[in-house]
Design a protein that fits this description.
Glycosyltransferase RgtA/B/C/D-like domain-containing protein, 68% helix, 2 domains, mainly alpha
Length: 466
């Protein structure tokens, strides 16, 4: 009976933490949407594979929302994230035992950063951070068999939620493995070698599971039918496409894009979505898939373009690391927009709530939050730098250092993948950047003096995670 009571108490506190993590949606008056939300809702309603993104999040919406309410979708996201944050506190800041203290830490990261603005969105963005948290717990906390299986399932789910997650999580696993090998973290038992191999297998499996899922729903065995168009759009933005066309468009104009080589858009978003862009003037991504694949092969097989590609990738990654503001894409989507139509189709009785939300009345303001977020990240860098590089660094538990490593590598991998292969956008980096202040909060909770009542009945507890 005691175990049941304890589980019930923990679940109560997790419910409170989940409400904190969807507080942005509650404040807005409805789950937040972006221009892409309509596509995900459409895939939930019709169970069809979108051309330009995975089906997985549509299935998440279908299952968690019960085809009744979109509030349940973001609540499920908040609850899953709350459980992972709770577990990271237990693993990496075990001194903070009292649930009220843990809830305060979750509230702190929600106030300091924009995490609630991502977990409250009808978008898969929050699953990038969810995947990184699951990965850190797998590699560093030595979970029991049942928990390990659950975390591996969460890792796989996060990987196949978005095609960028597949590469971000794989790069993170590989980079952490390289550091663990070079710094003897495997031999010292800080990173569990067999579990690392399991995480590698799961992240690699995602590259097969997602195409198989698409094939099962009639979308073909592919990650995305529009991937070549996104990559060509990014090459257009970087100037590489213009150079390639100048080198390869002769009198015969073997590519249709040759006609537009002096009219290429300045950015990838215009290339992809503007009605007058070369892509859309020539029939869209399906009509151009074969040609764009030939162009991509031609560029990848030509070493002369490598210096420009490397330079563009490095600068895009560095730019993306600084783009952590909030509000990107959270404009009004009223009548005659895809989100409006699909919200009405999924849960028609919630359409009035949707229309009266602060987002759709253009009343959301992000200036104060963004100022707070930039300050929180600078302070987090200062705290982590002093703790890990200062004279007291030997006091910091190896597992907590490992958590900072996983989070830092994951944030960098996300910037590389999204900035180098897609777009430099606040939304794409802000979805994971909040993990840095979270790591700093864990460190402070573990080592700063705290009120005894926050530490729980067991007293101060160990100075290092067990």
């Amino acid at each position: 009976m005691t175990a049941i009571r304890r589980a019930g108490t923990t679940f109560f506190w997790l419910l409170l933490a989940a409400l904190v993590l969807i507080s942005a949606g509650l404040y807005n008056g409805f789950p937040l949407v972006t221009s892409d939300s309509g596509t995900y809702l459409n895939s939930a309603i019709n169970r069809t594979v979108p051309d330009d993104r995975p089906l997985t999040y549509g299935l998440w919406v279908l299952v968690t929302g019960l085809r009744k309410t979109l509030w349940l979708v973001i609540f499920a996201q908040g609850l899953l994230l709350a459980a992972l944050l709770w577990r990271t506190m237990s693993a990496f800041a075990p001194r903070l035992r009292h649930p009220a203290g843990r809830l305060a830490l979750v509230a702190g990261v929600a106030w300091l950063t924009g995490v609630a603005w991502y977990s409250s969105q009808l978008m898969p963005d929050i699953f990038t951070a969810i995947g990184l948290l699951a990965l850190a717990l797998l590699l560093l906390s030595r979970p029991a068999v049942a928990e390990r299986l659950a975390l591996l399932a969460v890792l796989l789910l996060a990987a196949i939620m978005h095609s960028s997650n597949l590469l971000t999580l794989l790069l993170t696993v590989l980079a952490v493995g390289a550091v663990a090998w070079g710094q003897h973290l495997f031999r010292r038992g800080i990173v569990h070698r067999p579990t690392w191999w399991l995480t590698l297998a799961v992240t690699l499996a995602g590259w097969l599971v997602l195409p198989a899922l698409h094939a099962g729903f009639g979308g073909g065995f592919t990650l995305s039918r529009a991937s070549s168009a996104f990559l060509v759009a990014r090459l257009s933005e970087s100037g590489v496409l213009e150079k390639y066309l100048a080198d390869n468009c002769g009198p015969d104009n073997k590519y249709r894009l040759c006609e537009f080589r002096n009219q290429l858009p300045n950015d990838a978003i215009t290339f992809m979505w503007d009605a007058s862009s070369p892509l859309n003037q020539t029939g869209g991504w399906n009509a151009n898939r074969a040609e764009y694949q030939r162009i991509l092969r031609g560029i990848l097989l030509s070493p002369r373009y490598y210096p420009v590609l490397l330079s563009e990738t490095v600068q895009a990654t560095l730019r993306q690391l600084t783009h952590i503001g909030h509000g990107d894409g959270l404009t009004a989507f009223r009548e005659n927009t895809n989100p409006y139509w699909k919200v009405g189709e999924y849960a028609s009785y919630e359409l009035k709530e949707y229309m009266s939300s602060m987002q759709n009345r253009s009343q959301l303001e992000f200036q104060a939050l963004n100022e707070r977020t930039y300050g929180a990240h600078l302070l987090a860098l200062l705290v982590l730098g002093l703790a890990l590089l200062g004279p007291g660094r030997r006091r910091v538990a190896p597992a907590l250092v490992g958590f900072v490593l996983v989070v830092g590598v994951g944030i960098g991998a996300n910037a590389l993948v999204t900035g180098g292969l897609a777009n430099v956008l606040d939304r794409l980096q802000g979805r994971v950047a909040w993990l840095l202040p979270w790591a700093a909060l864990l460190l402070l909770a573990q080592y700063l003096p705290l009120p005894v009542r926050w530490l729980g009945s067991g007293g101060p507890g160990p100075s290092r995670p067990e």
